[in-house]
Design goal:
The chain is an alpha+beta fold and 358 residues long. Helices cover 40% and strands 26% of the residues. It contains eleven helices and 15 strands. The strands form four sheets. It has a six-stranded antiparallel β-sheet with strand order 2-1-6-5-4-3. The radius of gyration is 24 Å and the shape is globular.
Length: 358
């Protein structure tokens, strides 16, 4: 189903929100709504709103009133049932779009989510909101930054070499900001992975060769590959980014040099409970380094956006790793102590009859 609202502010909304068409079918949802309902855009698109939101109000009648009067409707303390999870009280708002179309906006303002569930939902919603706002700012900053860079280059052309120190500094800092913006935009990319059957060892070798010539040139690489490892489903470009980030993370932690070990193995029968169905994730890739380790104070939050192990880090590298692996129906876990840090990625096996993008 095509998304209706192409606006970064929509993605940055901190509350669950849905858009519905003239037939009351869902056309788009906010990232916060995905977290709140524990369901993705793909699974909800095209469904009747009443089948998505189990509310203790006459939802279809309320929608009809909003359409007839072209005015917003507000309910306080509406009870939302969420299957096997605890119900929650929400304020409900239904409003027409200002463009005069048949699309309606439905916003939920959760008022009472107790215990660990509430804290987890709050943390995930805040993270997604921060990502959406950062993505929006990245787009807004790029144009004036290009102007600043161009002006500095023009100034440098008319200055003698001994006076170019300041313009060189401007250009250097501008390039650093561009690199940061690219990371933010990459993290905010909501396009689903283009799945294909992949040879994981080929991808690991490509990522290793690139890292050994660049950010990890001071590191020694060792491999312990399982020759029986079957193909997995994945997006080659996105998984290459995962391995590049993990190699860079290991190399930056061991600035004086060290060893990065790449291990793969197959664990037949391992299953992960993912959502409402079991997901088999028998392929494992471990990236192990012998650096100083990650401080225990941030180990539990290291995959959250903007949490960094380095003083000047952006905190998006490992968050991007987690995002990509989650979208591949896999898991990534961290075990760290001084002298051994291990990131273990687990992915599903590709069905023999799978036909995806090459």
């Amino acid at each position: 189903m095509k998304q209706v609202l192409h606006n970064p502010v929509w993605s940055a909304l901190p509350m669950p929100g849905l858009l519905i068409d003239r037939d009351n079918r869902v056309t788009d949802i906010t990232p916060a709504c995905e977290v709140f309902l524990n369901a993705g855009q793909k699974s909800l698109a095209g469904r009747d709103l009443a089948s998505v939101l189990a509310l203790d109000v006459a939802l279809n009648d309320d929608i009809a009133r909003v359409r007839a009067g072209r005015t917003a409707l507000f309910h306080r303390d509406v009870r939302l049932e969420r299957g096997t999870r605890e119900a929650v009280l929400c304020d409900l708002q239904i409003a027409p779009m200002s463009d005069g179309s048949d699309t309606l906006m439905v916003l939920l303002h959760p008022r009472q989510i107790a215990g660990r569930l509430g804290r987890a939902l709050h943390a995930k919603t805040v993270a997604k909101t921060a990502i959406g706002l950062a993505d929006m700012l990245a787009h807004e900053i790029k144009n004036p930054l290009a102007g600043i860079t161009g002006a500095a280059q023009l100034l440098a052309m008319n200055l003698p070499p001994e006076d170019q120190e300041m313009t060189d500094l401007i250009l250097q800092e501008a390039r650093r900001i561009v690199a940061l913006l690219q990371q933010v935009e990459q993290f905010g990319d909501l396009r689903p992975p283009r799945m294909a059957a992949l040879n994981m060892h080929d991808l690991l070798e490509r990522a290793r060769k690139s890292a050994s010539l660049g950010v990890a040139s001071h590191m020694v690489f060792r491999d312990d590959y399982d020759p029986s490892l079957p193909y997995t489903l994945g997006d080659a470009d996105q998984l290459l980014q995962v391995f590049a980030n993990l190699f860079a993370n290991a190399a930056e932690a061991a600035s004086g040099g060290g060893t990065i070990t790449i291990r793969t193995y197959f664990e037949q029968g391992l299953r992960l409970k993912a959502g409402r169905s079991d997901q088999s994730v028998p392929l494992h890739i471990e990236i192990i380094d012998d650096g100083p380790g990650i401080a225990q104070a941030i180990v539990d939050n290291v995959f959250d956006p903007f949490v960094s192990t380095r003083e000047n880090g952006t905190g998006l590298g490992l968050a991007l790793v987690s995002k990509i692996i989650t979208e591949h129906n896999g898991t990534v876990v961290l075990a760290s102590k001084p002298g051994r840090t291990c990131f273990r990625i687990s992915l599903p096996m590709a069905p023999k009859d799978f036909k995806g993008h090459s």
